[in-house]
Amino acid sequence: MRTRPPRLLAAALLAALTAATFPAASTAEAAEYERVLNGTFASGSADPWWSSAGVTNRVTGGELCAAVTGGTTNPWDALVGQNGVPFESDQSYTLSFDAHATTAQTVAAAAGESVSPYRGIARQEFALTTAKQHYTFTFTSTLDFPDAGNGQVAFQLGGQASDNTICVDNVSLIGGVKPPGGVPPTPTKKINVDQVGYVPGLPKHATVVSTATTPQPWTLKNSAGTTVATGQTTPKGADATSGDSVHLIDFSSFDTAGTGYTLVVGADSSFPFDISADGIKRLRYDSLAFFYHQRSGTPIDAQYVGDQYARPAGHVNVAPNQGDNNVPCRADLACGYTLDVRGGWYDAGDHGKYVVNGGIAAWQLLNSYERASRIGDASVFRDGTLAIPEKTNGVPDLLDEARWEVDFLLKMQAPDGMAHHKIHDAAWTALPTRPELDDQARRLSATSTAATLNLAAVAAQASRLWRGIDAAYSAKLLAAARKAYTAAKANPAKLADPNDNVGGGAYDDKTVSDEFYWAAAELYATTGDNAYRTDVTASPHYKAASLTRAGFYWGGTAPMGDITLALAPNGLPAADVTAIKSAFATVADQHLSAMAGMGYATPYDNSVDGYVWGSNSGVLNNAQVLALAHDFTGAAKYRDGVFEALHYLLGRNPLSTSYVAGYGDQAVQNVHHRFWARQNDPTLPIAPPGSLSGGPNSGLQDPVVQRLLPGCPQQKCWVDDIGAYSVNEVAVNWNSALAWVTGWAAEKSGKPPVPVSDCEVVYSAGKWYDGLSAQVKLTNTGTTPWTAWKLAFALPGTQRVTSGWSATWSQTGRDVTATNMSWNGQVEPGKSVHIGFNGSGTGADPTAFTVNGKSCKIG
């Protein structure tokens, strides 16, 4: 959970209000609307109550207790408050609360404005004693903030020479005649498009909000306002997930590259968009730039991010930081040692660093590189492609960025081989707080099996990728991975404490068999050791048994093991690898089937839990499944599904909003972050381009959305507010998903890469009326053996494969694949394998072939 930002009442104004008598209550009868949130603290959380400098909030025994540092001059020098409180002018309000103090003290309660000019509404002093008492007073508002805008309630606790602790409970503000809430500040369009652009040559769809039951005429206009295409919408009717009645527009037939296009239906028009691959190619790199911004323990230099995002190093033992170089365990753990855990990425909008979140994020970046190096184009991540300090060290920049986190994971390994689950502040950090100004003590949480297996998996994966770059580092990684895996097997059920949620999220995980499978898969792919192979094949997750439309995430990691086993050469039976790849196509088909019925097509399964915290990362992880299905089969429908997911995230959604900062005319700005916090401090920046918002969360798990969005349709449970942490936070494992998918999509945009050919195909077919029998010879013309192979090509005309030999044959549309059998997957350089098939239909011979994703010469 995250803390609500303090917007403090101006000291000058409060001085003028000292001991003021409240105006008489209005004679008009007020409705019984509760105006403050979480006044009973029954959940154990203080949110959205904030505290000023010198005050630390903690919920103890069902009360909010504020530890106040003495030595302040004025009452308003120490504050506890809540923002976003709705007030209506000329309406009566009654504020009541229970309170007591360790030492008897006079405090004040104040109501007013949370932003400049900080106008006051009312203030009254109360003499607290050591015994809990009930206090109440009534006043009339002179200001109007009806829609939870800039109203504030605060307790003034300062002006005392000595330290003290003041506890409050049952805080209530009753009054007003309008219900709290109001319309979220996110204007919507009736025509929703990808505000960044549509790639030429690919499908182009938009969604229209309309209750009409018949097709409506649409017009596509260029930047000059000239009509360049027209058509009719397709009515789809009610869309339950968005709450909209919708039509669809398909303008795929128009394919002229350009900028500033708009779609028009009647009097309504869309946001402008491009027909171009440029936007997605830029996003490939901006999504990766996010990670440099999130680095801990190093200055973020203006030469890489610009002046507004530059900052000194955080948590490096420079005052007021207490630093990460000598961090002890939590006091109740008494582990007997400290660790130097400088570095790594800040996980999200706070200053915590988590192994299970960092693990999947680092894995996803590394997997993006491994996939590109095996079946794509890894040159796009070469040295010099990212704006980072390591851009001239001779190592691919994507690997450099991932290493910043991998090295941190190694530092989290305890002497016994286990890994600590997380490290963060002892209490929740105030919002905003620049990392270098964080003065809280840092603490290690306990080691856990899940964290240890994350370390084992990522270190083994990284060892594989660094083997040809830095042999010594590769060996170090593998040693750490082996040690971690051994320690996890010795401690197979050391689960993270679900109650360890003070100062950082708990990230508890009740099932770790998936992490065991993932780690064993990575270790086996790297080493080939039989012990790891046995653990892989004996796992209940083997052969993608856990891959469903629900996808994968930090707490469900088994499909990541499947991805590695499908991509990295290994000694598993070819039929088993084929089964894993087939599972990706099966689940991808389920996504496409569901997407066909959606008003805003997106690969997301909301059938059980609705839209959950970080739903946008779920969309992207499922888009990765679609992308891999395309890699494994060559079928265009899966590629198109990936782009549909990106269209949803970039504006084709019911909120007409791009969830990626800096991309689109209406893009997220006010993410929940302690440095990118312009919404509550104009000297700080908004989110940098390429940062992904968590997205809709129908659970409404923070007070801002609870107030603003009660009863929202699932896809509309989002608001661009810094305090709305359950919908608008950022996280490394969300941006890693964005980086993986946009890297893949950029590769598929425009001209495909042309890998160096290491194969030759000779194709010959005997044909007769409505039939053929084809012989195919594959030759390894490269310098390294093939341990497995997949041939892909397209059959022109009406030709269909009906049976085949010496390979596992499949066909989707015109796209045909042939995958090796268990006995002919090994093909040495210069050697050939002969396969063939019988088919029906007529047509010309194929004109292009790939083996393992690489174009082949035709013999």
From TrEMBL:
<comment type="similarity">
    <text>Belongs to the glycosyl hydrolase 9 (cellulase E) family.</text>
</comment>
<dbReference type="InterPro" id="IPR008928">
    <property type="entry name" value="6-hairpin_glycosidase_sf"/>
</dbReference>
<dbReference type="Pfam" id="PF02927">
    <property type="entry name" value="CelD_N"/>
</dbReference>
<dbReference type="Pfam" id="PF00553">
    <property type="entry name" value="CBM_2"/>
</dbReference>
<dbReference type="InterPro" id="IPR004197">
    <property type="entry name" value="Cellulase_Ig-like"/>
</dbReference>
<feature type="compositionally biased region" description="Polar residues">
    <location>
        <begin position="220"/>
        <end position="235"/>
    </location>
</feature>
<feature type="active site">
    <location>
        <position position="729"/>
    </location>
</feature>
<dbReference type="Pfam" id="PF02018">
    <property type="entry name" value="CBM_4_9"/>
</dbReference>
<protein>
    <recommendedName>
        <fullName>Endoglucanase</fullName>
        <ecNumber>3.2.1.4</ecNumber>
    </recommendedName>
</protein>
<feature type="signal peptide">
    <location>
        <begin position="1"/>
        <end position="30"/>
    </location>
</feature>
<dbReference type="InterPro" id="IPR008965">
    <property type="entry name" value="CBM2/CBM3_carb-bd_dom_sf"/>
</dbReference>
<dbReference type="InterPro" id="IPR014756">
    <property type="entry name" value="Ig_E-set"/>
</dbReference>
<dbReference type="InterPro" id="IPR012291">
    <property type="entry name" value="CBM2_carb-bd_dom_sf"/>
</dbReference>
<keyword id="KW-0378">Hydrolase</keyword>
<keyword id="KW-0732">Signal</keyword>
<keyword id="KW-0136">Cellulose degradation</keyword>
<feature type="region of interest" description="Disordered">
    <location>
        <begin position="220"/>
        <end position="242"/>
    </location>
</feature>
<feature type="domain" description="CBM2">
    <location>
        <begin position="752"/>
        <end position="859"/>
    </location>
</feature>
<keyword id="KW-0326">Glycosidase</keyword>
<dbReference type="InterPro" id="IPR012341">
    <property type="entry name" value="6hp_glycosidase-like_sf"/>
</dbReference>
<feature type="active site">
    <location>
        <position position="720"/>
    </location>
</feature>
<dbReference type="Pfam" id="PF00759">
    <property type="entry name" value="Glyco_hydro_9"/>
</dbReference>
<dbReference type="GO" id="GO:0016787">
    <property type="term" value="F:hydrolase activity"/>
</dbReference>
<dbReference type="InterPro" id="IPR033126">
    <property type="entry name" value="Glyco_hydro_9_Asp/Glu_AS"/>
</dbReference>
<keyword id="KW-0624">Polysaccharide degradation</keyword>
<dbReference type="InterPro" id="IPR001701">
    <property type="entry name" value="Glyco_hydro_9"/>
</dbReference>
<keyword id="KW-0119">Carbohydrate metabolism</keyword>
<dbReference type="InterPro" id="IPR001919">
    <property type="entry name" value="CBD2"/>
</dbReference>
<dbReference type="InterPro" id="IPR013783">
    <property type="entry name" value="Ig-like_fold"/>
</dbReference>
<dbReference type="InterPro" id="IPR003305">
    <property type="entry name" value="CenC_carb-bd"/>
</dbReference>
<dbReference type="InterPro" id="IPR008979">
    <property type="entry name" value="Galactose-bd-like_sf"/>
</dbReference>
